[in-house]
Specification:
This protein is about 40% helix and about 15% strand. Helix 2 links the parallel strand 2 and strand 3. The longest helix is centred in the C-terminal third of the chain and has 22 residues. The N and C termini lie far apart (about 45 Å). It is of the alpha/beta class. The chain has 13 helices and 11 strands. The strands form 2 sheets. A 9-stranded mixed sheet has the order 3-2-1-4-5-6-11-9-10, with helices on both faces. Strands 7-8 form a two-stranded antiparallel sheet.
Length: about 350
């Protein structure tokens, strides 16, 4: 596969990310923070969802990560509680961060008045949709609720990039990837609500493995900076976890699934894509959450990332995270009392 020269965002783009931090979610957020500090995007809001852990924990984690990265004024919203639905705490730890959430800056607890994610999505996508990209790296509950509350909301987004689904084997069942399995009905609804959603499936995201060599290059010279130390410890946990579940060796690192959406937004020429007709199995059963290529009725045309310049993406991630840490050190953001 031949890739064109690397091209970054050439105009300021407004970005909303719907997320459930989560280790690879955290790396995606840190990457967006770098792009925001570079003036290449405006991070309009972070909407959080139940998924890797419960809704209150993912909201706290997102707020802590934003403060860690010098973006503590970024609006956040909390997702609806999903009752007894399963989460991935057995993989990500009870706090979603392998016990590292305690190292994040602390903020207020969620209140009844805390904005709901679906309401924030509906509001923001009505303001400047032609210049707004929506990255979805969690179960798609919030997006489905926004669409249900205000039909046509998702279609307004200039870009809808989803990390979810698997065209081959899943990672939570043989049929399904976690985000699509967790709320399969929402996944089916969201995929059909945008005229041309972009999908990063497991087949592509698993190729982006952040190794110890990459991590060493990213934090080089920043060993005393709290955000860099947190990043390094998080990557060590993710690498250990990946080895324990049998998908890698220590030197191979771990896949940064969710960060693939940031890469596709910021450096689209590092990806090859193909138009596919797909549908999501929404019914309970062994095929719940399966993403199928199909020419039958009730399918949706999507752009699916079919190949990626892995070395190029990881090079851009390295450069941009180094910029973030340089900026935080220069601005003395790490002196925030909440970091102590």
């Amino acid at each position: 596969m031949q890739f064109q020269p690397r091209v970054a965002i050439i105009r300021l783009m407004k970005v909303i990310i719907d997320t459930d931090p989560g280790g690879d979610d955290a790396i995606a957020l840190m990457w967006l923070a770098s792009l925001a500090h570079q003036g290449r995007i405006e991070l309009q809001a972070v909407t959080t969802a139940a998924g890797n852990v419960g809704a209150d924990k993912t909201w706290r984690n997102a707020n802590g990560l934003l403060r860690l990265c010098g973006l503590g004024q970024t609006p956040t919203a909390i997702g609806a509680t999903m009752g007894k639905e399963r989460d991935a705490a057995e993989v990500h730890g009870e706090d979603g961060m392998g016990g590292l959430a305690r190292e994040l800056p602390t903020g207020p607890a969620p209140l009844p008045s805390t904005p709901q994610s679906s309401q924030v999505l509906t509001k923001l996508l009505a303001v400047d949709p032609a210049n707004t990209a929506l990255l979805a790296v969690a179960p798609l509950t919030n997006l489905a609720r926004a669409e249900n509350e205000a039909p046509g909301t998702l279609a307004r987004a200039s870009n809808l990039i989803i990390m979810g689904g698997a065209l081959g084997s899943g990672n939570v069942t043989p049929a399904a990837e976690f985000n699509f399995y967790f709320d399969a009905a929402a996944a089916a609804s969201v995929v059909s609500a945008h005229p041309l959603p972009r999908l990063v499936t497991l087949e592509t995201s698993t190729r982006l493995r952040l190794t110890r060599t990459h991590v060493g290059a990213i934090i080089l010279g920043h060993d005393s900076l709290q955000p860099a130390r947190f990043f390094a410890r998080l990557c060590a946990f993710m690498t250990q976890r990946d080895r324990q579940i049998g998908s890698g060796l220590p030197d191979e690192g771990f896949p940064v699934h969710d960060a693939a959406t940031v890469a596709w937004l910021a450096y689209p020429n590092l990806f090859a894509e193909s138009r596919c007709q797909v549908r999501v199995d929404a019914e309970d059963g062994p095929s719940r959450g399966r993403l199928r290529q199909s020419q039958s009725a009730n399918t949706q045309t999507c752009l699916v990332a079919t190949s990626v310049d892995s070395n190029g993406v990881l090079e851009m991630l390295t450069n941009d995270l180094r910029f973030l840490f340089d900026t935080l050190r220069a601005n003395d953001c790490a002196s925030d009392p909440g970091l102590s």
